[in-house]
Amino acid sequence: MQKTSRIYGIRAVIEAINSKSSIDKIFIQKGLGGSLYKELEALIRENGISFSYVPIEKLNRLTRNNHQGVIANISPIEFYNFETLVEEVVQKKEAPLFLLLDQLSDVRNFGAIIRTAECTGVDGIVIQKKGAAPVTDDTIKTSAGAAFKVPIAKIDHLKDAVFYLQASGIQVIAATEKTENSIYNVNFKVPCAIIMGSEDTGISPSILKTVDQKAKLPLMGEIASLNVSVACGVFLYEAVRQRTM
Question: Fewer CB within 10 Å, N or C, the chain?
Answer without folding.
Answer: C
